[in-house]
Design goal:
Number of strands: 6
Shape: globular
Protein name: Beta-lactamase
Organism: Promicromonospora alba
Number of domains: 1
Radius of gyration: 13 Å
Strand order of the largest sheet: 1-2-3-4-5-6
Oligomer: single chain
Order of helices and strands: EEEHEEEH
Helix content: 10-25%
Strand content: 25-35%
Largest sheet: 6 strands, antiparallel
């Protein structure tokens, strides 16, 4: 059995436009500049990593750095570069 339940992080002073549950976060289009994505991230002793993918797992990106980011913006920039901006109507 796989659970995909996440809860809103609004008001938690955490990652903007996100939901979280069972160690996995979900980002909506306002955060990614495109599709809803699911992933995991973490940091330890000057390193930061993250991995995100489309909900079906068909499109993914991961990164690891030897710096400890002080904001989420570098991750969002990489995500927007990989998944692109949303199509205009």
């Amino acid at each position: 059995m796989t659970s995909r339940t996440t809860v809103s992080t609004d008001g938690a002073h955490w990652m903007p436009h996100s939901r979280y549950g069972l160690g996995v976060f979900e980002l909506d289009g306002a955060a990614t500049g495109g599709p809803t994505l699911r992933g995991a991230a973490g940091s330890l002793w000057g390193h930061f990593f993250f991995a995100v993918s489309s909900p079906d797992g068909e499109h993914a990106v991961a990164a690891h750095t030897n710096t400890e980011w002080k904001s989420w913006e570098p991750m969002f920039e990489i995500i927007r570069a990989e998944f692109g901006e949303p199509a205009s109507d």
